[in-house]
Every structure is written in structure tokens, then in C-alpha cells.
């Protein structure tokens, strides 16, 4: 059986980290990367026998790549501290690691805002319905962006898994709205670093196209007010990032 490494990248997640760690105990190795952490996350990780790597990375892609490099297994399961791998997904991951000839597999996600399951309308850099979370080491490289880094892959993608990861994306709708400010500030820094040649009018058009994509094409309307807020924030994300990059200083 191929060795599986579970990788968790976190920052000040002592409250949510234990549940995440307990859910990946089926892995052969757990690696926890702590980024500029000041709480008791290290103690929580070590309690579960995890190997802990601490450092300070301003760029999200850099810290995720550092975690991948630290994993010893040929297969890696990458999750965040606010995510839970239920038993049925754990069994499916184990089967894929044993039998798959592909380089990666998509994992479907159930996103929760508080206690509310919000299944429809995610996307456009403000949420994920699925992600390439199970992959062979050396086949997945994160880009050097501060938020929502790009991805490069080698090898063929296998069939998506069917059991769903549980993602406690936000504790409340208010937290979802506040997340827009954090995300757009990080994205604005990337735009300033790389240069942003597009006019504001292009971002205004993207607001409407992204809103339609999330609210209509991805059926966000089925989630009522939650879907409306998610679609609006997904549309605002590139526009507000552009305006911050243009008018604010670092």
C-alpha cells in the first residue's frame, strides 16, 4: 500500500485544528505547516503526532509548496484546518491511493456557513465546489500569489472522488462578508506587484459575468439570500481588488 501524507497549512487555528487532525488520522503521516502562528496550534498538532513546520510566508503559494516538499509520502492529501474528512471519504481516499494510476483526483466539497449547508453558487475565486486535494508528490505546484494562487499540474487527472469533504468555510454570513476585505487586500498586493493593465470598465463587466455565473449558472438562487450574497461577493472580488490596487498604498 502506498504511503499517504496528510498536509494541513494553518495560521492560529488552535480551536479548529484538533477536529481536522482527528479526521486525517487514517493517513500514514501528518504534516502541519504553521505560518506566523502565535496561539497553541503547535501543541494541538503535536498531540496528534503530527510533524510541525513553522515559518513566515507572505505568499500563500510558497507556504503550500513548502508543505508539499516536507511530505514523505508519494501521495498527499491537502486539507485546511477548517475542513473535515468524513469516514466515507477517508475510505475512498485509501482506495484511490492503493489502486489509482492517475496523478491527482478532485475531491467534492460541502461548504457550511455556520450550521447552514450551502451547496450551490460557489466559485469565481470565492469558494470551491471541488478541488485537486489528492495528488502524487511532484505533480502539483502552487503559484506565487498571496491569495488564490494558480496551480500547475503534471500527469493525468483521474476520476473525481464521490464522497464529500466538509468545509466550515465561515462561522456566519457576517464573516463571509468580512472575508471579502481580506481577500481583496491580498489580491490588490499581487496586482500591484505584477502590474494591472486592465481598465476599470473590464472589472465592472466581470462583476456582472461572475454574478450570473454563480447565481444563475451554478444555481446560487437555490440558496436564497445566501446565494445572493455569495454571487455578489464573487463579482465584487476582482473589482474591489483592482480599485484597492489602483487607489491604496501598501
Question: How would you describe this structure in keywords?
Answer:
250 residues; globular; Spore Coat Polysaccharide Biosynthesis Protein SpsA, Chain A; 7 helices; 9-stranded mixed sheet; 11 strands; two-stranded antiparallel sheet
How is this structure best summarized?
With 250 residues, the chain is of the alpha/beta class.
Q: Topology, please?
A:
Elements: E1 4-10, H1 17-23, E2 29-35, H2 41-47, E3 51-55, H3 60-70, E4 75-80, E5 83-84, H4 87-99, E6 104-113, E7 116-118, E8 130-136, E9 140-142, E10 151-153, E11 165-170, H5 173-194, H6 200-217, H7 225-247
Helix pairs in contact: 5-7, 6-7
Q: Would you mind describing this structure in some detail?
A:
- The protein has 250 residues and is α/β, with parallel strands linked by helices.
- It has two domains: 4-170, Spore Coat Polysaccharide Biosynthesis Protein SpsA, Chain A (Alpha-Beta Complex); 173-247, no CATH class.
- Helices cover 40% and strands 24% of the residues.
- The chain has seven helices and eleven strands.
- It has helices at 17-23, 41-47, 60-70, 87-99, 173-194, 200-217, 225-247, and strands at residues 4-10, 29-35, 51-55, 75-80, 83-84, 104-113, 116-118, 130-136, 140-142, 151-153, 165-170.
- The strands form two sheets. Strands 1, 2, 3, 4, 5, 6, 7, 8 and 11 form a nine-stranded mixed sheet that branches. The protein has a two-stranded antiparallel ribbon with strand order 9-10.
- The longest helix has 23 residues, at 225-247.
- The N and C termini lie far apart (49 Å).
- The model has no long low-confidence stretch (mean pLDDT 95).
